[in-house]
Amino acid sequence: VELLYPEVGHVEMDPDALWKGFITVVKGAVQDAGVQMWQMEALGISTQRATFTTWDRRTGVPFHNFISWQDQRAADLVKSWNRSCTMKVIHGVMKLAYFLTRHKRSLAASLIVFSTQHVTFRLVWMLAHYKQ
């Protein structure tokens, strides 16, 4: 998959190119397996798990390129959340919960921070900045 860099920190993929690559890989895998498409009941592929696009539900046409998990456009939003009072309260409460219970999950929760790899922040950025 060819990565596109329209601006510094932005990492995208062309949806049409990704789809064509997907079809090529699936056809090759089916051919290599020595079966016909009609013999397939299910197919599972897991890749680009934190990459997303949005599309027009009526036409199926994407509104924008895929936004890669490597993309940094939501970095300021992520920083603001990680520095927020909400996160400080969550960390404090979970540290207290760990102190009282000694459950390692509470300790882990007290250390949670967001990153730009979380789809939600990039999606929020895209919804706020996308101009059709």
UniProtKB/TrEMBL annotation:
Q: Which InterPro entries match?
A: ATPase_NBD (IPR043129), FGGY_N (IPR018484)
Give a GO molecular function annotation for the protein.
kinase activity
Q: Tell me any Pfam family this protein matches.
A: FGGY_N
Give start and end of each Carbohydrate kinase FGGY N-terminal domain: 3-88
Q: Which UniProt keywords apply?
A: Kinase, Transferase
- Gene3D superfamilies, alphabetized: 3.30.420.40
- Is Lipoprotein one of the keywords? no
Keyword Ubl conjugation assigned to the entry: answer is: no
Top-rank taxon, per record: Eukaryota
Family affiliation: Belongs to the FGGY kinase family.
Q: What is this protein called?
A: Glycerol kinase 5
**Organism of origin:** Ilyodon furcidens (goldbreast splitfin)
For this protein's source organism, the top of the classification is: Eukaryota, Metazoa, Chordata, Craniata, Vertebrata
